[in-house]
Amino acid sequence: MKSQFSRKLAFIAEKETAFKLLLISLLLLQSAFTFADGVKAVWYRYYDSKGVANISTSVTPNHIRYGYEALDRNMQVIKRNRPYNAETEEKKAPQRAAQAKQREADLRLKRAYTNSQVATQKRNDALAYLKKQISFQQDQLKQLQSDRIVFKRQEMEYLRKGDPVPAILKSNLNNNAANISNKKEQIQTLQTNYHNTQAEYANIIARLKAMEN
């Protein structure tokens, strides 16, 4: 029981510490406003749970908790800040994490390709190389298939004469069949790589164009 109670106390203390750190961060970010038109905040006003206005020259945890208005030296509102809501912020955490992940991915794309034109050229180069490899393997497959026709004719000639098929010819036929099978697999792998490369670069180029617009 003591162990569970201690863990609960530690958990509560950890949550309170995290909340305090968050408040401190918000205070540091929001305590000295300088707006686009050059007007600086001089006063910070919030209304507590009883509706009482509280004004100070700096942002306090209560300002963050209740939400506050930044005022200029003439007490004119120049910015309103919503109350901090831990539950709302927690719900937004996954979305913010996804956005941060997307920004990181976008930065990697920019470093790797600079822009969509560069990515398009790299795609064309990669596809041209794969296409050349596919063509080369297909030529080899055709040669193997032509060799097989010759081997089969030789085999049929021996069978027609009633002579035994030489061991070397049988070996050639077996090796030829294995080579044809392997060559077809290589071509299939290259074709799969070709289509995957197309799809991958399509996503990359589309994302880069979206960032450029």
TrEMBL record:
Protein's UniProt keywords contain Coiled coil: yes
Tell me yes or no: is Coiled coil among this UniProt entry's keywords. Answer: yes
Q: Which domain of life is it from?
A: Bacteria
> What stretch or stretches form a coiled coil here?
127-200
Keywords of the record, alphabetical order, are: Coiled coil
Return the protein name.
DUF4124 domain-containing protein
